Amino acid sequence: MQMKRMDRSILILLALMAMLVVAISGCTPVVQNTDLPPDNTDEVPEPVTEPDPYLVLVNADNPLSEDLVPNLKTIQGNFKLEEQAADAYLAMKAAAKEDGITLLVISAHRPYATQERLYKNQVQKLINKGRSEADAAVEAAAIVARPGTSEHNTGLAADIVTPSYQNLDPGFAKTDAGKWLAANAHNYGFVLRYPKDKQDITGIIFEPWHFRYVGVEHAARMYEEDLCLEEYLAKK
Ligand SMILES: [Zn+2]
After folding, report:
1. Who contacts 102 (Cβ-Cβ below 8 Å, separation ≥6)?
2. Is 18 contained in some domain?
3. Which of 72, 86, 118, 216 could join 189 in a cystine, given CB atoms 3.0 to 4.6 angstroms apart?
4. Residue 2 vs residue 121, higher pLDDT
């Protein structure tokens, strides 16, 4: 009987110790699990969709970041375009040649730093003429695009003419090269960026020589639906 009572006491003691261990170990997982991600079931992260770099909108209101430096590839002499745009241009040039059209690039990628230097020089010139700094900044922008606000800074735009007509004026649209580009550029991923009837949307005069690479899929849709980039992006 005596032994039995002692056994019971030991059993009770053991049970108490076991409860204590459970109580202690019940606390420890909080410490052990700090490496696990917090249980934020309320905050479901938004799926991250990277914007298509070939649809970048660059204009006076949407300047390009200074940090964005494209991987460039030479397309003609010292003229370079972003690699994918460059390959597309070379394919387009070869196709034009098969149709008896010679394409000639007279402007392509312009580095941000070049644009900045040109703009700053223009501002300084006007300040030297007696303008205030604020007036000079506004007046200069009408003559030289502010750094980052020219599509040429992206490496996705080129001014394309033909050896027999190198003027940057609306007359280029009437040349065989101008007609060929207007009708075929979209097959190579390029769009006529500043169409005649979209000046109020683009804010830029008709430029039948300025072509912008957006990729074949987007270019085809913009061509078929007669949308400039601003309209296309608003619709997407
Ligand atoms: Zn241009």
Report:
1. 96, 162, 163, 177
2. no
3. 216
4. 121
32 CA to centre of ligand 1 in angstroms: 61
Q: How large is the average pLDDT for residues 20-32?
A: 43
Q: Which two tokens stand for residue 76?
A: 């003609």
The Å distance, Cα 88 to ligand 1 centre, comes to 17
**Phi-psi map region of 222: left, alpha, beta (phi>0 left; psi -120 to 50 alpha):** alpha
| pLDDT classification of 228: cutoffs 50, 70, 90 | very high
Domain-embedded: residue 46: no
Between the CA of 100 and the centroid of ligand 1 the distance, in Å, is: 24
In whole angstroms, give the CA distance from residue 33 to residue 55: 44
The CATH number of residue 186's host domain is 3.30.1380.10
What is the whole-number distance in angstroms between the Cα of residue 108 and the centre of ligand 1?
7
How many angstroms is it from 159 CA to the middle of ligand 1? 5
Q: How confident is the model at residue 67 (pLDDT cuts 50, 70, 90)?
A: confident
Which pTM was predicted? 0.74
In the DSSP assignment, the letter for residue 16 is H
Contact 143, 81 (CB under 8 A): no
Instruction: Name the domain count of the chain.
Output: 1
Domain span including residue 123? 54-235
Asked, for residue 31, whether it belongs to a domain, the answer is no
Query: 3-state SS of the chain: helix, strand, coil percent to 5?
Result: 55, 10, 35
Any idea which residues carry the catalytic annotation?
Answer: 207
187 inside domain: yes
pLDDT in tens, 184-215: 999 999 999 999 999 999 988 899 999 999 99
